[in-house]
Amino acid sequence: MKKLITLFTIAIACHSLPGQGYQTIEEAEKTLSVPENNGILAVLNINGEVSVKGTNRSDILIKYKLKAKPKSSRGFEHAKEDLRFLIQHDGDSVIAALMGPFVNYYRGKRHVNINSEDLDYWFFCTIDVEVPRNINLEVATINDGNLTIENINGMVAADNVNGDVSIDKVTGQVITETINGDIRIDFDANPGDGSRFQTINGHIKTNVPKDLSASISFKSMNGEFYTDFDYSIGKTGNVLKGDSDRKGTEYRIEQFTKVKIGTGQSSMFYETLNGNMYLRKLN
Questions:
Q1: In which element (H, E) is residue 55 found?
Q2: Is 76 part of a structural domain of the chain?
Q3: Are residues 135 and 253 in the same domain?
Q4: 201 and 137, same structural domain?
């Protein structure tokens, strides 16, 4: 499986929710074949929400609407020149991404560098996707929108910056992160090993089957961990984490509190700065 095309934000300062004055640049509905070799569908937005729903279909259906609001007499014209919605097959991945002059790729990472003062327009894109349930997903947005994913049996990676992440009826590994927003996940089966949930300013709420078997690691500076499961307390443990940039990969040791539920089958990681973490039984 190809490595995830990870979203990396350098600088973002571009907020304007759609309303009066927005004009449509492009609106389309497209059908795609699924990635080969158990690959990944990457749906990458910048400003706006993304919704992905697993269905019985055997292909991928993408609907998107791209809008812009001019700040100057030629602002809309410049937006039409700058913005485009890219759909392409790349090896064992399918990429559907909003593109512009402020987007580039370096070492497999997507870099987005926007300052609203440099643009004479605001822009906004909504993306709705229907996929086969067993697909592997990477979904991302940055501003002015939430991520909503449901009914997926494959791996899910979901990244937001200023918005919530909501994932329902999943059965595989989930890796999700936001900065200013809540994370809510409902698992229909024991979570996939290595699932990880991180937010800075928000709560993490996970609901799982009553027969959960997991080893839980969690940490928060200004939050607490709550669960209605019976558990055994483990020792505070060290977790090796790595961050990659142009200079290479820097590794650091971080301490997490550990608890075990059942036989500890799957590893799960929770991390917040300002927010609580919840692990509850599904009703």
A1: strand 50-55
A2: yes
A3: no
A4: no
